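Hey L., structure's done. Input below.
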Amino acid sequence: GSMDGLTSTNGMGLNYVDQWGKKLKITSSYFFNKSDNQTLQQTNRNYLDAALAGMSYEEYKENYLTNWNHRFNFKLDYQINERSSLLFRPSLSFQNMDSNNSLQGTNKTDGALSNETSTTAVGENKAYNLGADLLFRHRFTKPGRTLSWMLSGRMSNTDGSNRSDFTDLLYNPLEQNISEEYSQLKSNNKKQYSFRSNLTFTEKISDELQLQLGYKLNYSDSENGQKIFVSRPDEESYEQLDENLSSMYRSDYLTQSGNVGIRYQSDRWNAMLRLETQWANLKGDLTYPQSEQHSRSYFSVLPSLMFHYILDQTNSLQFRYRSITSSPSITDLQSVVNNSNPLFLFAGNPYLDQELSHIANLRYIHTTKSGHTFIAMLGTTYKQKYIGDSTFVANENIELMPSVTLNKGAQFTRPINLNGYYSLQSMLTYGFPLDLIRSNINVSVAANYTNTPTVFNGVTSDTRELNLIPKIIIGSNINKNIDFTASYSAAINNIFSSSDEATSNDYITHTASVKLGCMFFWGLTLRSTFNYVGYTGLDTGTEDYCLWNLSLGKKFLKNNAAEIKLETFDVLKQNRNFTHRLESNYCDYISSNVLEPYMMLSLTYTIR
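Output:
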């Protein structure tokens, strides 16, 4: 059953394995799960001065969710002969979900109330997912000549309905405050079909060279239909269709690519160079409330490179580079307005292009026979036509379309393609044994930098985030009966905007943990985990806290195959759930409900 502020899960599973001779093996499984979730969440949002000086947003949400899941999996592994094999994996899942949610959001300007919204919603969703993977592999009599063919298909359908009641309040210090109440019934249907095929052929050219040829085909068809009905004044019936918030949209994305690669392998070198040419077509078809079609074709050359070089017995160098494309989601393409939170309206953009990413990383590894290890890593990601956000904040009430009004202080966001996104990642780590306490010590420091372009009130700027994370871990396995791990890390975060580099947001998150496991005489066991989380530089009333979990158990039966144990969670009653999230123009301080102290008795039996 459900418990206040907790997640309750009840489930059962069945597995079946059958092997017919040496050539055919069948594995099947069924899993049922029912869960009840209650989430209480408080969000405080502060905007950067470069975006909205003096503006803040507060939000309180309560979400109640009951979810039923049924999952079926099947696996057939067939060894046709000594050179050919077939692997078939179908799957099927069903899901029913009931929800009851409420939200209260408030905008403030220099601490004074600007506008407020209160929303309650009750909904239900039914969904199924059907998929199958087929893999055929064959080795020819000539060494190095192989053929593999992969086929994969997916189909999903989601039907849902949601009834929402809204109360909007606009504060006016000079005139009377304006209040508006209304209700909506949303009917939503999402369908998606996808198909993938990958054909790969390899041919040995010499003892050191191998040729690889491939062809890929990916196709996805997505449909999203949404109908919004509004109730008449003082009536419970929902008969009037709101055409401005309703739409029927379909998206087709087809990619075909051919690739040729060459692999070189010797005693010290392992390298792979591949060149892929890709043709893609993205179609969007809006059939309601009006007819509108969009179609764009893309041609891309996508190189990739990998090499691994062994300098000597203790030193090696590895480099990887690849380029990939990704299409916008159907939600990003659908232009209908989402008004689930009237203070933050969202609509898609049917003119979005696909995104092209370039990813590279270099890694150096040094190891010694005495157990000392040094690793240095440097990586980067660059995105062309990055799908970012363009946000507009209303200075006065604006009618976006009939029945859709953007009140003063509210925001309207839609995705657009932007250039200028890049990120840098680096890490140094050194590990060595400490014989004094029979432990391994690992010391590391990671540094990450991200530049994210964004548009706010028509002005393009870059949000830059820098993270520095030093960490130390001491791990030990003194003997088979005692082991422990201790660690500490400090995440140092800095974020600022290119439009106002003088204003930045800096804070540090401290995390320390200790884990201990012991087994005594008569099979008695003790396990303990202790975690400390603290913050520096956050002026939000957050408190440092400690989380201590403890368990006592008894192992029995042959080879200690069974164990009964009593676990106690949050012994000190200090558990917190706090997140600090940094976005392009604001930072969020999010607090939510957590598990209260509880005890659990469990019995475990291991089949060896």
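The radius of gyration is 29 Å. Confidence is low (pLDDT under 50) at residues 1-7.

-- N.
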